[in-house]
Design goal:
Number of helices: 8
Keywords: Membrane, Transmembrane, Transmembrane helix
CATH architecture: 3-Layer(aba) Sandwich
Number of domains: 1
Helix content: 25-40%
Low-confidence stretches: 1-10, 12-38
CATH class: Alpha Beta
Mean pLDDT: 87
Distance between the termini: 72 Å
Protein name: Alpha/beta hydrolase
Radius of gyration: 26 Å
CATH topology: Rossmann fold
Strand order of the largest sheet: 3-2-4-1-5-6-7-8
Structural class: alpha/beta
Organism: Schleiferilactobacillus shenzhenensis LY-73
Pfam family, one: DUF915
Number of strands: 8
C-alpha cells in the first residue's frame, strides 16, 4: 500500500505508466504495419488482375484518362502504370504499382496514334516477366478494340498473360465508310456472319479458332438512330460476335443510344459506358 506521504508521486507515476503502455502499443502497431509483406515488381501481378486500356486511331492518353479517372472514383480502382510506345514499337513504362490496389489500371499509349497488335506483345511479355501477371483484362476504343482482337487471334504466346475479360468499344471490325464503303451496307446472318467480309476482317475470320477460351467479352457500340455512331456502322461493330462466339466464355452486346452515343463521346465521361465497364470488370457480367 502506498503511504500518504508518497502520494505526491502517484500522479506522475501513473502518467509514466500510461505513456509506457501507449508507447509500447504504438510500437507494436508500427511494427505490425511495417512488417507487412510488400510486393516487389516481380510478384505484384499475383495479387490482382490489371486492366489495360488502348485508345483509338489518332488518339492518345486523353482518350483513355476519362474512363480511367471515372473508374477510379470506385473503391479499389487506380492507375498504376503507363506504357508509352514509340514509332519503333519500343515501350517505356512509368508509374508505381502498389499491391494494395485491388483493381489496377494500366494505360497503353501509342505515340504515333496508331494502335498496333504486334506492339502489344512486348508490353504483355514485360508485364508477365517483370510483374508476375498471370491474366489481364483489356479495354479498347475503336482501333484499339481491333488491335486487341487481332492480338487475341494471332499474337498470343505462353510468354504473355492470359486474357481474362475483354471490353470493346465502337470497334470497326469489318471496316467503316471512308475505308470501305460496303461495310455500312452489310447485314448480319443468323449465324452472326456478315454478308460482306472486308480485307481487315478476313484475317480475324481466318484465325477466329485461336481466340482464347479463357476470356469473357463485352462489346459496346453506339447507334445515333441510323445504324452508326457517326463513324463506325453498327453491323461492323457487331461483326465481333462471329469471331468470338463458340470460343469466349461469354459474349455480351450492349448498344448505347443516348445523347453520348457518338463515336468519340463513348469514351468521354460516358455514364452508361462507365457503368458497364465497372460491372463487367468486377463481376464479368452487366445488367
Amino acid at each position: 500500500m502506498i503511504r500518504l506521504k508518497n502520494r505526491k508521486w502517484l500522479g506522475p507515476l501513473l502518467i509514466v505508466i500510461v505513456l509506457v503502455v501507449l508507447g509500447g502499443g504504438g510500437l507494436f502497431f508500427w511494427q505490425r504495419q511495417h512488417n507487412q509483406p510488400v510486393a516487389s515488381p516481380v510478384d505484384v501481378g499475383h495479387y490482382h488482375t490489371p486492366t489495360l486500356f488502348v485508345h483509338g486511331f489518332g488518339g492518345g492518353y486523353g482518350s483513355e484518362k476519362d474512363m480511367i479517372n471515372d473508374l477510379s472514383t470506385h473503391p479499389g480502382f487506380k492507375q498504376v502504370l503507363r506504357f508509352d510506345i514509340d514509332a519503333s514499337g519500343k515501350a517505356r513504362v512509368s508509374g508505381h504499382w502498389d499491391a494494395a490496389v485491388k483493381y489496377p489500371l494500366i494505360a497503353v499509349v501509342f505515340q504515333t496514334g496508331r494502335p498496333d497488335a504486334n506492339a502489344l506483345v512486348p508490353v504483355l511479355t514485360q508485364l508477365k516477366k517483370s510483374y508476375g501477371i498471370k491474366s489481364f483484362n483489356a479495354v479498347g476504343h475503336s482501333a484499339g478494340s481491333s488491335a486487341w482482337v487481332s492480338w487475341a487471334v494471332t499474337n498470343r504466346t505462353a510468354a504473355q498473360p492470359a486474357l481474362h475479360r475483354l471490353v470493346t468499344i465502337a470497334g470497326p471490325f469489318n471496316g467503316f465508310p471512308g475505308m470501305d464503303s460496303q461495310s455500312a451496307t452489310a447485314t448480319i446472318g443468323k449465324d452472326g456472319k456478315p454478308s460482306y467480309i472486308s480485307p481487315r476482317y478476313a484475317p480475324l475470320v481466318a484465325n477466329r479458332s485461336h481466340f482464347p477460351t479463357t476470356a469473357a467479352v463485352l462489346n459496346l457500340y453506339g447507334d445515333l438512330g441510323h445504324g452508326t455512331d457517326s463513324r463506325v456502322p453498327v453491323v461492323s461493330a457487331r461483326a465481333l460476335g462471329y469471331i468470338v462466339r463458340g470460343r469466349a466464355i461469354s459474349y455480351t452486346e450492349r448498344v448505347i443510344k443516348n445523347s453520348k452515343a457518338q463515336h468519340s463521346q463513348l469514351h468521354e465521361h460516358n455514364p452508361l459506358v462507365n457503368k458497364y465497364l465497372y460491372e463487367f470488370l468486377t463481376t464479368g457480367k452487366v445488367q
